[in-house]
Amino acid sequence: MGAIFSRRSSGSPSSPNPNATITEHDRAVLNLKNQRDRLQKYERQLEALTAKEIEAAKTLLQQGDKKRALMCMKRKKLRERDLANITGLLDNVHHTISTLEFAKVQVDVVSSLKDGSEALKRLNDLMNIDKVDLIMADTAEAIAYQNGATNARPV
Known about the structure:
By secondary structure, this protein is mostly helical. It has two domains: about 25-105, Helix Hairpins (Orthogonal Bundle); about 110-150. Helix content is about 85%, strand content about 0%. The protein is built from four helices and no strands. The longest helix is centred in the middle third of the chain and has 61 residues, at about 65-125.
């Protein structure tokens, strides 16, 4: 019973597939997502630093040091400008990730359509129109014969 709840030493079902290939598309999306994560981390750091600058400016104003408080506010303004730039970059990264993922979906759809078209073509090659006409004629003859046989029998 212990074997039911224990992990196998040969590997778990969630282990990566050794036969899986990493495409250029996968690598590009991964790089963009890593860059997005770094930008978000930097954004959080800037927000924290901005809040600290505001607190420092308040403290300095209470202490009567207007000059240093003004410097804190200038640094805060620079960080806010950097935050605006990061927001624009994050928007671009999100848009690019979405565009790449949608392009992958489009490629998959076109590939499926191509496969379906080829399968339909192979099926149509198996049933050419002359064979279908011949089968339909044979079927019509068989039906006519059966109708004749049914009508010829006295009841």
